[in-house]
């Protein structure tokens, strides 16, 4: 079953094109590991895929066609699996004096992310650099509020149990500002345990600030999610130690 499809995605920042013509096909139980140098656009790509940013509209220079359409050759993303191989794009004949603008499209579970973000995000869990938590609330209060926002029915006891699994026993009632960066990150990671109806995880550097034991626990959680039919697209500067087939996708730094 196809869970995420991205076609002809491009991104520009400060007049610099980070990437273009990125195509992704992510199916159930598939794990894509996105890599690339700092500044290559990994986070920008993930934000586009989940609907937080819009793909760039790319201008095509006018061309004169006589017999066959010109072939656009651009491969900013290198894939090492047939499941996530970028497709070539072809320019279409048009009036030679008119430039064309094209914009990529992203669908999650068959719904266009940028035209219907709420519906497309129903079974999505995005974990980004910004934790989306309040420093003044406790871990329990933060997660109870998040669950209410996402229509997740959960008890305070359930949240305390999950926080215990993440090594936060005894810290449940402290304001987040009193917790370390790693402990605050664990609070946000608890959302992976709470949104049980999700079938897509998009994770941006989820291992940051975690110790070895927590990284192993999270890798095991990802494996279980994949084996249950979920799909994962994630970035990480470290090698993945997950007992599951991995599709590697690399974004090249564009000058």
Concise overview:
This protein is of the alpha/beta class and 255 residues long. The chain has helices at residues 42-49, 117-120, 139-149, 156-165, 181-189, 191-194, 212-227, and strands spanning 2-13, 16-27, 31-36, 57-60, 71-72, 77-79, 89-90, 100-103, 105-108, 111-112, 124-127, 200-204, 231-235, 246-251.
Supply the number of structural domains. Answer: 2
Helix content: 10-25%
SSE topology string:
EEEHEEEEEEEHEHHHHEHEE
User: What is the count of DSSP helices, taking H or I runs of 4+ residues?
Assistant: 7
Rg computed from alpha carbons, rounded to a whole number of angstroms: 20 Å
Poorly predicted ranges: 61-75, 81-97
**Helix/strand-derived class?**
alpha/beta
Strand content: 25-35%
Oligomer: single chain
Average pLDDT, all residues: 87
Q: Tell me the name of the CATH homologous superfamily of the largest domain.
A: P-loop containing nucleotide triphosphate hydrolases
Total count of strands: 14
Written description of the protein model:
With 255 residues, this protein is of the alpha/beta class. The protein has two domains: 1-93 and 101-123 and 198-255, P-loop containing nucleotide triphosphate hydrolases (Rossmann fold), CATH 3.40.50.300; 133-197, no CATH class. Helix content is 24%, strand content 28%. It is built from seven helices and 14 strands. The protein has helices spanning 42-49, 117-120, 139-149, 156-165, 181-189, 191-194, 212-227, and strands spanning 2-13, 16-27, 31-36, 57-60, 71-72, 77-79, 89-90, 100-103, 105-108, 111-112, 124-127, 200-204, 231-235, 246-251. It has a six-stranded mixed β-sheet, with helices on both faces. Strands 2-1-9-10 form a four-stranded antiparallel β-sheet. It has a two-stranded antiparallel ribbon with strand order 4-8. α7 links the parallel β12 (200-204) and β13 (231-235). The longest helix is centred in the last third of the chain and has 16 residues, at 212-227. Mean pLDDT is 87; it is low at 61-75 and 81-97.
């Amino acid at each position: 079953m196809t869970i995420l499809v991205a076609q002809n995605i491009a991104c520009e920042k400060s007049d610099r094109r980070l990437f273009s013509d990125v195509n992704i096909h992510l199916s159930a139980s598939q794990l894509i590991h996105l890599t690339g140098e700092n500044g290559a656009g990994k986070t920008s790509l993930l934000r586009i895929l989940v609907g937080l940013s819009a793909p760039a509209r790319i201008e095509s220079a006018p061309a004169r066609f006589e017999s066959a359409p010109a072939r656009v050759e651009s491969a900013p993303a290198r894939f090492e699996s047939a499941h996530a191989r970028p497709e070539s794009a072809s320019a279409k004949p048009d009036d030679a004096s008119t430039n064309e603008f094209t914009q990529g499209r992203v669908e999650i579970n068959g719904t266009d992310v940028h035209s219907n973000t709420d519906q497309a995000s129903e079974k999505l869990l995005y974990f980004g650099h910004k934790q989306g938590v309040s420093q003044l609330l406790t871990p329990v209060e933060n997660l109870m509020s998040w669950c209410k926002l996402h229509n997740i029915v959960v008890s305070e006891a359930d949240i305390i149990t999950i926080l215990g699994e993440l090594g936060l026993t005894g810290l449940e009632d402290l304001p987040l500002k009193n917790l370390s960066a790693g402990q605050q990150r664990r609070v946000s990671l608890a959302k992976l345990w709470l949104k049980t109806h999700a079938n897509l995880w998009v994770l941006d550097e989820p291992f940051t600030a975690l110790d070895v034991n927590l990284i192993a626990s999270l890798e095991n959680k990802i494996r279980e999610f994949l084996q249950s039919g979920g799909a994962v697209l994630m970035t990480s500067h470290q090698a993945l130690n997950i007992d599951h087939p991995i599709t590697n996708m690399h974004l090249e730094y564009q000058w």
